[in-house]
C-alpha cells in the first residue's frame, strides 16, 4: 500500500515529502477554502514539490461544467488528477475524461456499487471515505474490503482503491489489511505512524547505557 498526503499545507507537506515515502497528494474544496490562497497557486506549489499524482476536486456538479472545469485543472500541471464526485453527472464525466486520457479520482465514495460504477467508467482511483463511514455507525474497513472483492472479481477493472477520510493510525492498518492500494493521510497521521512508546523507551535506555559505559 502506498502513502499519499491529504493536505494543502505546503509547510506541512515538505517534511513528509522529504521522507521519500509520499507518492502523491490529495486535496478537497474544504481544504482549499481553509488555505485562504488562490487555488491555482496552491496547486502549482504542490505540483512543483510532488512528482506523483495530485488530486484536485471540481466544484461543478453538472456534467458539462465538470468536464470544462476538469480540462482547466488538468491543464495546470501534468500530474494533476481530477477529483470528481461519484454522482450521476460525475460518473458520466469520469467516462468522458477517461476517453480523453485525463486521470480521475472518483471521490465521496460510500458504497461498493458507487466504486463499481466509477471503475467501469475508467476512474484511475476511487476514494472510499473511511472516517465518515465510521461516523455513521458503519465500518470503513468493510467498505474497502467489499470494493477489493468486486475489483478482484473482474480483471478488466484497473481502478486503484485510495482509502480517504483516514483519522488515525488504526484506519491506516485496516486499509492495508482490507486491500487498499493507497492510503491518503494528514501530515499529523503520517507522523503518528512512526511512533510507538516502546521505541522511545528502548532508544532512551540504549543511549543511557551507552553514555554510562563512556564514563567507566
Ligand atoms: C481525501 O481525498 C478526502 O477529501 C479527505 O480524506 C476527507 O477527509 P475528512 O473526512 O476527514 O474530511
Question: Could you explain how this protein is built, in words?
Answer:
Helix 6 (112-120) links the parallel strand 5 and strand 6. This protein has a single domain (2-214), classed as Alpha-Beta Barrel (TIM Barrel). It has an 8-stranded parallel β-barrel, surrounded by 7 helices. The chain has helices spanning 10-17, 29-35, 39-49, 63-74, 88-99, 112-120, 130-135, 140-152, 169-178, 187-192, 197-214, and strands at 2-6, 22-26, 54-57, 80-85, 104-109, 125-128, 160-163, 182-185. The protein is globular. It has 216 residues and is of the alpha/beta class. Bound molecules: erythose-4-phosphate. Erythose-4-phosphate binds at residues 6, 26, 28, 107, 127, 129, 131-132, 164-165, 184.
Overview features:
216 residues; alpha/beta; TIM Barrel; eight-stranded parallel beta barrel; 52% helix; globular; binds erythose-4-phosphate
